[in-house]
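Table S2 (text version). Query chain:
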Amino acid sequence: MSALQTESVVLNQAAARTASASLEAAVRSVESAKAILDDSPSSLRRWRCLSELLVARKAFLNHSAVCTSEGGPLLHLVDQKPRLNAHICRLRSEHDELRRDFDNLIARASRQEGQDLDSSEIGLLGQRLDRHRFTSTGLAFEWANRDIGGEG
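Corresponding structure-token output:
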């Protein structure tokens, strides 16, 4: 392996760790937002819940930006194993879906009528983030340890 290839692998591993840490932070913030809203749906709790959702959204957007950046971990996986492209496309579409979910929940929590915001909705977002995290981790494992569908 050339020095340039080694540097590329190290940079992609660092980017993957950054993306993973950002996604983990988003999951924790969503869990915190749900717990806050579960306690009591008062206006102060709604405000604290909104704050946690904003932190979670920022962390998730960082995860998404790192993953999909030029030379980022997702593009690196496709370059190394083109057969993983369908799996990568699904992860990228999940980024768009999760971003919309965050935007919708934040918009509702921001309005005065945010009182109708239910912690179960935040819980569903947390479940989707967890599933995304596990899918990403599984895909990285498959790439590093096995080849999905043969050579390539």
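Notes on Table S2: The first helix runs from residue 3 to 39. Residues 94 and 149 are 22 Å apart (CA to CA).
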